[in-house]
From TrEMBL:
<dbReference type="GO" id="GO:0071108">
    <property type="term" value="P:protein K48-linked deubiquitination"/>
</dbReference>
<comment type="function">
    <text>Hydrolase that can specifically remove 'Lys-48'-linked conjugated ubiquitin from proteins. Has exodeubiquitinase activity and has a preference for long polyubiquitin chains. May play a regulatory role at the level of protein turnover.</text>
</comment>
<dbReference type="GO" id="GO:0004843">
    <property type="term" value="F:cysteine-type deubiquitinase activity"/>
</dbReference>
<protein>
    <recommendedName>
        <fullName>Ubiquitin carboxyl-terminal hydrolase</fullName>
        <ecNumber>3.4.19.12</ecNumber>
    </recommendedName>
</protein>
<dbReference type="Pfam" id="PF04424">
    <property type="entry name" value="MINDY_DUB"/>
</dbReference>
<dbReference type="GO" id="GO:0140934">
    <property type="term" value="F:histone deubiquitinase activity"/>
</dbReference>
<feature type="compositionally biased region" description="Basic and acidic residues">
    <location>
        <begin position="389"/>
        <end position="401"/>
    </location>
</feature>
<feature type="compositionally biased region" description="Low complexity">
    <location>
        <begin position="351"/>
        <end position="370"/>
    </location>
</feature>
<dbReference type="GO" id="GO:0071944">
    <property type="term" value="C:cell periphery"/>
</dbReference>
<dbReference type="GO" id="GO:0036435">
    <property type="term" value="F:K48-linked polyubiquitin modification-dependent protein binding"/>
</dbReference>
<keyword id="KW-0378">Hydrolase</keyword>
<dbReference type="GO" id="GO:1990380">
    <property type="term" value="F:K48-linked deubiquitinase activity"/>
</dbReference>
<feature type="region of interest" description="Disordered">
    <location>
        <begin position="351"/>
        <end position="401"/>
    </location>
</feature>
<feature type="domain" description="MINDY deubiquitinase">
    <location>
        <begin position="68"/>
        <end position="318"/>
    </location>
</feature>
<keyword id="KW-0833">Ubl conjugation pathway</keyword>
<keyword id="KW-0788">Thiol protease</keyword>
<dbReference type="GO" id="GO:0005829">
    <property type="term" value="C:cytosol"/>
</dbReference>
Length: 401
């Protein structure tokens, strides 16, 4: 189901057409969906508290400071919008909403350049309420409706952050909390890359066996730091070393497992350094959506690669093609080069002219010597002025003297 941000109060619908060949990956296809917006006034109390009756779209920057700029990008052969960070930084609300925009589950007006955070939460709430599960039993229906209410209750927290406690034994392992229900309802996976390498057997045993989550690992490290048992102290030091060496909350094995776990063309939320980002896997390449306001006018910068723990990344466009900075034109350098070429051409021309003049002078000097100094050619001509030869009458004969 979908929402369309419209400039009128009339409900707008979009088509939901999921490809049958990619059913397992259907939420990651940027395809439109159709479902008319409901104008039913008999909404529940929770729904009426969350959803505002404002269907007007903002085509100008909101007056309050709590808003997101909109950047229009080329993605999946379409022009689609993404929200950029505001003062709250890369929050979970931003990552989730951008996935729904790229999936075309929520559609906003094509002439919008900004949207208020309040409006974003409203659209997200409407989208959750309109998602229907028709094949649920009565018991599952009750649980589902309770999950919806829990999700609506935590939507406002999404704009600042969530309490997330990751586990070190898998990129999709998190301690379940109430806030995580939002990801389940929207069919969005949450990943991280802070995973212990299985080849580090001792550390993996310490972490995975007794303290699989981040909070448990920190508690164990503090508790055993001043222990009288040497084994406990050693475990505390190993944990502290692991946390210190991987302060970026990303390991090489985590990147490898993340690439193996995510499906091709999948959009998900990536948690790292207490930030939430939109991540996309494209042909075995992990790409993180660039949502910084500084890149608003750089339409060809859409993602950055996730290949290394040291943030040695490259920018790409909306198709995963590496972005390269255009070479700047140095006008002064070009002018100096042109002047040097001109001087060289002038030098060669003057040299050729000088050589030509020298050749002409030498030719003229030889010509003035001909009357006073007969040449060898003139002697031959003089010798030819002799009497008739006996060979003139018999050219075919050979005479020996």
């Amino acid at each position: 189901m979908s929402h369309t941000e419209s400039s009128s109060d009339q409900p707008t619908s979009v088509v939901d057409n999921l490809p049958s060949s990619t059913a397992s990956n259907q939420e990651d296809q940027s395809l439109p969906s159709i479902e008319p917006q409901s104008n039913d006034k008999s909404t529940s109390n929770v729904e009426s508290q969350v959803i505002k009756s404002n269907a007007e779209c903002d085509t100008t920057t909101p007056k309050d400071k709590d808003f997101h700029l909109i950047k229009w990008i080329e993605f999946n052969f379409e022009r689609l919008p993404i929200l950029l960070q505001n003062l709250n930084g890369p929050c979970p609300l931003l990552a989730i909403f951008n996935i729904l925009l790229l999936r075309k589950r929520i559609i906003i007006n094509s002439n919008m350049d900004a949207i208020s955070t309040e409006r974003v939460i409203t659209l997200l709430a409407e989208h959750i309420l309109e998602r229907d599960q028709p094949n649920l039993s009565d018991e599952d229906r009750v649980n589902y409706e309770q999950n919806v209410q829990d999700a609506l209750a935590v939507l406002d927290k999404l704009k600042t952050g969530l309490d997330v406690n990751l586990k070190f034994d898998g990129v999709d392992k998190f301690e379940y909390t109430r806030e995580c229900i939002v990801f389940d309802l929207l069919n969005i996976q949450l990943f991280h890359g802070w995973v212990v390498d299985p080849q580090d057997i001792e550390l993996r045993t310490i972490v995975i066996t007794d303290a699989p989550s981040y909070n448990q690992v920190v508690e164990k490290m503090i508790r055993q730091r001043n222990s009288e048992r040497e084994e406990h102290v050693r475990e505390s030091l190993l944990i502290e070393q692991f946390l210190d060496e991987n302060r970026s909350q990303l390991t090489h094995y985590g990147i490898l497992q993340l690439n193996q776990t995510m499906r091709d063309n999948q959009l998900a939320v990536f948690f790292r350094n207490n930030h939430f980002s939109t991540i996309w896997k494209n042909q075995n390449q992990l790409l993180v959506l660039v949502s910084d306001q500084g890149y608003l006018d750089h339409k060809s910068i859409v993602f950055e690669t996730l290949t290394d723990v040291d943030n040695d990344s490259l920018f790409t466009d909306g198709y995963g093609r590496i972005w390269r900075k255009p070479e700047s034109v140095d006008s002064s350098r070009d002018r100096d080069l042109a002047m040097a070429l001109h001087n060289e051409e002038e030098r060669l021309y003057n040299q050729a002219q000088l050589q030509q003049q020298q050749q002409q002078q030498q030719t003229q000097g030889n010509a003035t010597q001909l009357p006073n100094s007969p040449s060898r050619h003139s002697k031959k001509s003089k010798n030819k002025q002799r009497g008739p030869s006996y060979d003139d009458h018999d050219k075919e004969s050979c005479n020996l003297f």
